Hints:
By secondary structure, the protein is α/β, with parallel strands linked by helices. It has three domains: 12-108 and 206-228, D-Maltodextrin-Binding Protein, domain 2 (3-Layer(aba) Sandwich), CATH 3.40.190; 114-195, 3-Layer(aba) Sandwich (D-Maltodextrin-Binding Protein, domain 2); 242-305, Double Stranded RNA Binding Domain, CATH 3.30.160.40. 32% of the residues lie in helices and 23% in strands. The chain has ten helices and 13 strands. The protein has helices at 20-37, 52-55, 61-64, 72-80, 138-147, 160-168, 179-184, 218-225, 230-245, 291-305, and strands spanning 12-16, 44-48, 85-89, 101-106, 114-117, 132-134, 152-154, 174-178, 191-195, 209-214, 254-261, 264-272, 279-287. The strands form three sheets. The chain has a five-stranded mixed beta sheet with strand order 2-1-3-10-4, with helices on both faces. A five-stranded mixed beta sheet has the order 7-6-8-5-9, sandwiched between helices. Strand 12 and strand 13 (279-287) form a beta hairpin. The longest helix is centred in the first third of the chain and has 18 residues, at 20-37. It is globular. The N and C termini lie far apart (44 Å). The ligand NCc1[nH]cc(CCC(=O)O)c1CC(=O)O binds next to strand 8 and helix 7.
Amino acid sequence: MTNPLPSPAQPLKIGTRGSPLALWQAHEVRRCLGAAFGLPDAAFEIVVIKVTGDQILDKPLKEIGGKGLFTREIEEALIDGGIDIAVHSMKDMPTVQPEGLVLDCYLPREDVRDGFVSPGVASLADLPQGAVVGSSSLRRRAQLALRRPDLKLVEFRGNVQTRMRKLEEGVAVATFLAMAGLNRLGMAHVARSAIAPEEMLPAVAQGAIGVERRAADERVAAMLAAIHDGPTGVRLAAERAMLARLDGSCETPIAGLAVIEGDQLWLRGEILRPDGSESITGARRGGVADAAALGRDLAEELLGRAPSGFFSWR
Ligand SMILES: NCc1[nH]cc(CCC(=O)O)c1CC(=O)O
C-alpha cells in the first residue's frame, strides 16, 4: 500500500443508513477491518446518511418507486468523497453499481432463511385458514399467495420494533423477517421458526453484507480485499448474475440461492407472478469458477419457460 493506513487523525469514513441493523453492520465492518489491520475504533468514523426509503414509512416501497431508494444518497456521498466506504445489505443492492463505484467485498454470509415471526402461531403450516399476515416484500407476498391462497396479505413496513408493535396491536397475526437481521440484532427469539429454503426460497443475496468503494481508491481496495469472504463472493456472483439477467431487483418477485458443495455450486431460482398465481423454478449445478455463467444460464431457462405477460416488471 502506497498510502498510510487510516488513523485517529485521518479516519476511514464508513457510510451507512441509520437503522439499528444498518448500524450493526457498519460496526461489524469496522470490527473486521480493525482486526485485519490492528487498528483502533478511532481509526474509523461511522457516518450516518439519511436515505429516501427510510423517510417514507407509510407507503409500500413499490409506490414510492425508483431504483436505489435505500442506496442513492449513500452512493452519492461515496462518489463525492464524503465517505470512503459504504456498508450495505446485499439483498437491497441493484445488480449494477453507478459509474466509478465497485461492490465486490462481502463479509461471511449469515443465515439465509426467512424467519416466521408471530406472537401466537408456531409456524407457517400452523397459520389458520384466512389468517392476516403482514409483508411488504413482493417476493414473500407472491410466495405466500402461491402456497396459501387463503391468507390475507397486508402491507407491513418499518424496522423490527415497528413490526413487532403492529403484531401486538393485532394488525396481522404473523410476519416474516430475514433470520440474518434478527440474529445480528440479538432478536432471533422473535422468530417462532426459520423457514427452510425448500419451503420459501430466500431473496438473492439475503444474509450477506457488502462493502462498496470508489473504483479508483487503491488503498481501500487493498484493505477490503483482506476482509472479503471468497465463498460468499462465489455464491452472490451466481445469484446476482441470475437476477441481472432477469432484470430483477429487490422489488421484483424473484428468489435465488446458491450453495457450495465441495468444488460444485448448486443454484436454485424462482420467479413468480406478483399475485402468486404462478411460479417457475429451476436449478443448475456447476463448477464454482463458472458461478456467473450458471446464474445467467438459469435465468435464460426461467425466461424461456415463462409465458408472455409473466414479467410484469420487464
Ligand atoms: N429489505 C430490507 C432488508 N434488507 C436486509 C434485511 C435483512 C438482513 C439481510 O438479509 O442481510 C432486511 C430485512 C428483512 O428482510 O427482514
